[in-house]
Amino acid sequence: MTFKKLIFDLDGTLIEPKTGITRAIVYALKHYGIEIPESDYDALTPFIGPPLTESFSRYFGFDDAKAREAVEKYREYYSVTGLFECTVYPGIPELLRQLHQAGVPVYLATSKPQIFAETLLKHLELDHYFALIAGSTLDHTRDQKSQVLNWLLSQEHLKPEECLMIGDRHYDVEGARACGIDTVAVGYGYGSREEFDLCAPAYRSETVEALAELLQQLTQEN
Fold this sequence. Notes:
about 220 residues, Rossmann fold, DNA polymerase, domain 1, 2 domains, 6-stranded parallel β-sheet, two-stranded antiparallel ribbon, 8 strands, globular
């Protein structure tokens, strides 16, 4: 099957965001008297991917109002410092450049607020590779991955069957499936093999190099 448009997730797919996200979570939790020792920061990596309100509720028992307040505290740190405490996965700039040179339209769909994603990709000098950067809204009216994808599809008048989503969590697979979009699940991010066995993406790639080869195959006209 040939896909004409590619949609990338951001955290865990294009960038390694753990440092900035975990430090921002720790900053937010301190507001509630919850102290997380630095040795336990890795336990906060499940926050990477899903909407933050869901994670504060799931892992710390916050109700909806408190979870939203916690997100605001999180953003106090993240918007100024944490956003830039990340690294681009090796090989990603080259992959995006190859797709651009091949004339394959590339988009971004992330649960991160759109304004943060736009700022970060510009800072990383990757923004020019994307036809549109789609993200969540600061007022939580577009938080779920399916909502972000539906907004992207409508803005760009894209046909779901022509698109392929590339992500690292089951949220990407399930959100794309709800929109009629197939998915490549990458194994170098934050999703486990067991997670992918359950959500059953159409394709899998364990490395950036394997992903580049797969996308070349899937975007070439037969």
